[in-house]
Specification:
heterodimer; A: alpha/beta; five-stranded parallel sheet; B: 117 residues; Hypothetical Protein Ychn, Chain: A; 4 helices; 31% helix; 19% strand
Chain lengths: 98, 117
């Protein structure tokens, strides 16, 4: 029962990302959109935590990444909305961190 | 066979409507005989604190409603041990199973649907 976790708030303003990292299991996915994409900026502590994850697929919504001028590491797949939908269908369930 | 639903409640009790909305979803699910579980995570564990006096801020008693969960068939109640320890909460107003990282991962895997509020 693999889960796609979706985060949209800045990792610098609350603890959703750090809590989510504790819940992620092998085979799960983490999709960052909106201000959550700030976590992908190389050099910040959140990007280091993402790079250290094993067995977790990482995605960032491309338009939000571009809008913010971010340059995510290659390990983070940049996706469009159709791919977002495909991922939501591919995982057994989606957990959106509202 | 109905889908099982895990509700992750991670808002403090008086921070906004989040805590009560998560509880309402759990109670509604229970009333419709859905297999519902509830996990208190992050500030959500503060809902479990003893000795709260919500009338002091003109709010309804959330603890009383939480205690109604088993009556609505919601008996699978969990709390993140890390979140509890971080906030110095040792005793809780509700009987909950405390889970570490592995326990949390296994819990989420076990449910068909997850809602985080």
């Amino acid at each position: 029962m693999k889960t796609l976790h979706v985060l949209s708030s800045s990792p610098f303003s609350d603890d959703r990302l750090s809590s989510c990292l504790r819940l992620l299991g092998s085979g799960d996915g983490l999709l960052l959109c909106g201000d959550a994409t700030y976590a992908t900026q190389p050099g910040n502590s959140h990007a280091e935590a993402l790079a250290a994850l094993q067995g977790v697929s990482l995605y960032a919504l491309d338009e939000d990444v571009q809008a913010r001028g971010l340059k995510p590491a290659a390990a983070i797949e940049q996706i469009d909305y159709p791919r977002f939908v495909a991922l939501a269908c591919a995982f057994a369930k989606v957990n959106t961190w509202l | 066979m109905s889908h099982s639903l895990l509700i992750i409640s991670r808002q403090a009790p008086w921070a906004g409507p989040g805590a009560r909305e998560a509880l309402d979803i759990a109670l509604a699910g229970g009333a419709f005989d859905l297999p519902v579980g509830m996990l208190f995570l992050d500030d959500g564990v503060l809902q479990l604190a003893l000795g709260q006096a919500p009338q002091a801020v003109q709010q309804k008693d959330l603890t009383a409603n939480l205690q109604a969960l088993p009556m609505f068939g919601v008996e699978s109640l969990y709390a993140c041990a890390h979140s509890l320890a971080l906030r110095g909460l040792h005793e809780t107003a509700l009987e909950v199973e405390r889970l570490d990282g592995d326990g949390l991962r296994a819990l989420i895997d076990r449910y068909d649907q997850v809602i985080t509020l």
